[in-house]
Specification:
Helix content: 25-40%
Distance between the termini: 33 Å
Order of helices and strands: EHEEHEHEHEHEHE
Strand content: 15-25%
Largest sheet: 6 strands, parallel
Amino acid sequence: VRISSGIKEFDQVLGGGIVIGAAVLLSGEAGAGKSTLLLQVADGVARGKRSVLYAAPEQNQQDIGEFAARLNIHNENVDVMGAEGDIYKIIAAAEEKKPALIILDSINRAFVDDIDSDVNTSRQIEACGSFLTSFAKKKGVAMIIVCHETKDGTVRAPQTFLHDVDTVIHFDKY
């Protein structure tokens, strides 16, 4: 079963929509439009009468709201968790709200508190990715995870995490 993003071209890239229970990794350089697209996807899914949890560890809730307003996005079916990177709290919110789609923008600032490693390290990204992809599959929730890239253009994530996700989409900035 697939969820329409409300964006025809994005749905086509995903083979007809976002697959429930699957994890999509979206990477690309800064300024390529990842956050813009994902706010539009969140709005599109929510307009389809499905709830969305949008977690953005790098931005506070007010900044996300202002960005969404500039995009003319005002949707009560989108719950925003700004400035929160604790994976346990994000999963707890998802357990409570039961969204059809979870968007994490970005995994590079997320963390698992009981992993003895800094944020944005391979160990943290791998642990966060494992928790999130397992949750998506177990609960039947669609998930889109943003991952930054390194200066040489590669995804800043361990290969084990890349194997956990179902689809990888990379944005180039033109």
